[in-house]
Write a structure and sequence with these properties.
202 residues, alpha/beta, 6-stranded mixed β-sheet, 4 helices, rod-shaped
Amino acid sequence: MAHDKKNISISRKERRKVQHQEAKLANKQGKMASRKAARLTRIGIYVGLILVAIFLGFVAYTRINREMPGVAVSIIGNQHLRSLTTPHIPYNSDPPTSGPHVSSVARWGVHTRPIPRELQVHNLEDGGVFIQYSCKDCDELIKKLEEIVLRYPYTILAPYPEMDSKIASTAWGRIDQFSEFDKKRIIRFIEAYKGKDHHVRY
């Protein structure tokens, strides 16, 4: 009988030891699962925050771009040309808003003759704004445009007979074309873009 009691006693100890080990293992696994769940939750939060930031940035960029005067035109670089007659890629707007240009710049202010496109672009890169017109016998319009341009540095007024619209405002990567004189529209364009340097490598 004593021998049987000893066996029962040993058996109970082993059972308690096994149960303790199982409980310890279960507790360890539970903690690991909790840490993993917490880690996944953090990752989910970070990803969510990044996506929200990207979305808000896109919305802000779209809104700002939409509210800025004129229409955005893709930048086609700033290649330097040896001369006005050097062959180059075509401009993607007319008048141009970026692209190949010569090393010299046109004089700021009022011009009575058209300015070559390859010269215009360098002024735009330097932060200039062009106001150009295509009309005949429009002295009154020209006088109104002169009054605006002479108020601001980094601006040029010049005829541009080739363009389709009557008036065009251009800056680096932006263009605004219209048929009737609009003083507020022109001033808003000039004040938005004049003096902004665009010398970067493409």
